Amino acid sequence: MKKYQLGEFEEVVILTIGILNNQAYSVSIKDEIESRLSRTVSFGALHTALKRLEEKGYLRSYAGESTEERAGRPRQYFEITAMGKKAMLYAKETRDELWKAIPKTVLQTNLLS
Amino acid sequence: MNKPVAHPPLLFLKFFRWYCDPKMLDYIEGDLMEAYHARLKKYGKRKADAKFIVDVLLLFRPGIIRSKAKYNTLKRSHMINSYFKTGWRNLLRSKLHSGLNIVGLTFGIVCFLLIGLYVFDELTFDQQHVNAERIYRVIEHKNVRGEATTIAAAGYKLAEESKHSIPEVENITRIMRTGRANLVDPENPVPFQETVTIADDHFLEIFDFPLVEGDRRTALKEPASIIIDEDLALRIFNRTDVMGKNLQFSHLPFPLKITGILKNHPRNSSFNFNCVMSESSYYAADYFKETMASDWASNSFSVYALLRPDSRPDSVSKKMTRLVLTNFKPDEGTKLSYSLQPLKELHLKSAGIFDGARNTNVEGIPQGNPLYVTIFSFTALFVLLIAAINYTNLTTARASGRVKEIGVRKAIGAMRSNLIGQFLFESWLTTGIAFILAIGVVKLVLPPFNHFANKELSLFSVDYHFWIYAMTAIVVIGFLSGSYSALLLSRLKPVSLLKGLKLQTTGDLSVRTGLVIFQFTISIVMIIGTLVLLLQVRYLNHTDLGFNKDLMVVIDVNTRKARSNFETIKDQMSKIASVKSVSVTSRVPGEWKTLRTVKVSVEGSTDAPGTSYLFGADKEFMQTFEVTLLQGRNFREAYDSSSIIINETAARMLNITGVSEQMVEIPAASRDGYFETLEVPFKPRVIGIVKDFHFQSLRDKIQPLILAYNNNPIHVIDYYSVRIAPVDIPGTLNKLKAIMVANDADDPFEYHFLDDQLALFYVEDARRQTLLGWAALATIFIACLGLFGLATYSTEQRVKEIGIRKVLGATVVGLVSLLSRDFLKLVLIANGIAFPIAWWATNRWLQEYAYHIDVEWWVFAAAGTLALGIALMTISYQAIKTAVANPVNSLRSE
């Protein structure tokens, strides 16, 4: 039931991390979301989401190399944990099931109107 | 290649660093910088800066902001725990030292709280009324040809019209105090002589005198209403549920209905009336209507005004003056103006204001003495300060014992602020313990203290402001006593501390000696003050007054019958075997009731008339009071109604050297400082001169006095004075009472002994003397505790030196004097500083009295010796103990 809690924005973030695969750190995640979904993402929102995901155990982070453009600060890379993957799948499956349960006619009429 | 690096707005970067959770700080800052640089290339600096600011602001949200609970408070509470633990261990480790500190501080705080309560009570007189801040008393200033009078009274119309024509006056009330008259319960007619206060119905609107029963809005509205307080109800009826009962008042033909029961006044109320009658009771009377319709400037009423918030009293009083002067024209040469005195100044700042609007046999509002309030406030603070100094002295003296501890703390990273915190915390801990103990002690001693100070002080029902002040004082004292050692010890370098170097404490030593001198200076000043006060009170009670006050019964004349029958009554009284002599007079020497004053001049003289007191006396007066006649003769029988006897001072004023039946003229007389011309001038002959006697308190110089015969036209007789033999006094009193009652059943037998009455003049002085005496004892005790601690410590330091000296042949006496010398020197210096201060202060205080002792040298010598002796005893205990000890014990161990 409440086994896997994943908010809408959190789901977007974790999916994006999946896409970026090994190259996921905050700036790249932000750029990716902004370019793919054309919505602006603030660092504040992003970091809060990342922190929450990490606290839930869906993400794992490690410090990466520090570069000059970051004024010597390291990057914090994220990868999805096994539990994170389960949560993603669970989210997808619940959606799919819901989709399947919608009578075709409803969708059609809705589309027409 | 050093290209200038563009950087984001530093203010916001700093803000970000300040709030960001340290765990995430690096990463997020890196992100921000990376994004900033990317934007810098893309959009330019301004836009990048703006976006940076937006980012920082959007990051300011829970989850990213550091949590205070996790990092800060945790650390601080740990530190406090540690402070508490080490502080407590320190207290326990040196029990003598902490004991001295705590006892000293407890003593100081007890004195401080007791005196503080006393002073607070004096300062908060009449503050129990909600609108106290806005209530003012109307004061009349009158100047008749250069003779100024200030009197707290005003006329009927002033009060009546101010309300209508002066917008700032929200409400105003009038009070009258008629003379003492009988109040009688018609169902059980026992006469009670009471001072009845008469007030209009605004009285209870302006003042919040609480009613136990009755409706305060209507209690004083109807004619023939009276409210009485619980005490009076108990006395007249033996119970307090007497609403609606009737009382017969001897000044009025109709009975009064009780419409309210007043709660008894608290002690810190200037008002002490016990019954108030409605002014409307008089409204129907023709004479009242007639006199009051034009009464603008009489002195018949005490007037209290409630001003609207934010009004200026001086502009209101100017309007009052203008109001009176447009309706009333004073006599030629008379200036009249009014001012407003705040209610809160009634108790302490009414010196020089005559409490008017009362009959001459009504006591004025009792006054406090601001001088004593100041003296006591300073005393309280000084006692506390001395206790704090003790703490400072003992702590710094023992500091070298803690040098290692401080060194280690510093070496492992304690900041200076941590150490200061630790020392302050320790002093607060000690002060706190002392404070709790002190509250217990105060609770124990408060009942006897109240009894003695004639107050109703209480620690727990006192206004919360007292606690705010007290707590502030305690916290400040804790801070002061700890701060010197805190600053001193935390300043030292850890290396020198750990190397075990001796404290370089020359500066510290001089501060400490300074503090000891300061303590003893105050103690000695207080001892001298107490001694002088003691001697002065003794002088007041024992000085030759010029008449004999012992074994004298003074009986009040309260009714007309008791007055007109005086010949018979006197006759009957003198027939009692144990009565030596009886006299009737209008006033008694040493009387608290107001004396009449008159204008007097020798007939035919061109000098301006002088002012003299006057009272009536019969021919037995001199014999009864044992007043000495210097010249001329005593009164004889009836035809002497136009003769007077004057005292020496009056003779000097009138330039009379030999008595030759000079005619004098008395054109005007006064009850309250304002002279009214007599319809028929009194023209008596001077038939004798008596030796000056103190007919008033010794605070006042002997004034000119005229003794007129008992049937003089100015002042009727009011007292029987009976000199009795010292045998079976109760029996004599009973016989006297029987005579009074037989002659007038309505007259309650009221009497007092003259010496008791006279002692009342100085009862406050006696109280203050005792209070100061205790405070002086406390200061010297606390100072000695400190001295004891210091002596203990300094002898401990010199134990080895003493041992070697002894081995080399020093005597015990030599050693004791060596050890005591330094301290005694300090006490001597303190003596030197204290004497001039005490001399100046006691002389200033003695100026209050017209007749006072001279401060003699032996008072100083006694105080100095006392201080020196106590100090010597304190020190010598330690000194002797060390000096007689076997040197082997101190030298064996190294």
UniProtKB/TrEMBL annotation, chain A:
One Pfam family linked to the record: PadR
Residue ranges annotated for the Transcription regulator PadR N-terminal domain, each copy included: 19-88
Matches recorded under InterPro entries: Tscrpt_reg_PadR_N (IPR005149), WH-like_DNA-bd_sf (IPR036388), WH_DNA-bd_sf (IPR036390)
Protein name listed in UniProt: Transcriptional regulator PadR-like family protein
Organism: Chryseolinea serpens
Classification of source organism: Bacteria, Pseudomonadati, Bacteroidota, Cytophagia, Cytophagales
From TrEMBL, chain B:
GO cellular component annotations of the record: plasma membrane
UniProt keyword terms in alphabetical order: Cell membrane, Membrane, Transmembrane, Transmembrane helix
Residue stretches making up the MacB-like periplasmic core domain: 98-322
UniProt membrane topology term: Multi-pass membrane protein
TM region positions: 99-120, 371-392, 423-446, 466-489, 509-535, 771-791, 826-846, 858-880
Matches recorded under InterPro entries: ABC3_permease_C, MacB_PCD, Macrolide_Exporter_MacB, Permease_put_prefix
MF terms (GO), sorted A to Z: transmembrane transporter activity
Record localization: Cell membrane
Annotated ranges, domain ABC3 transporter permease C-terminal: 378-494, 776-883
Name recorded for this polypeptide: Putative ABC transport system permease protein
Species: Chryseolinea serpens
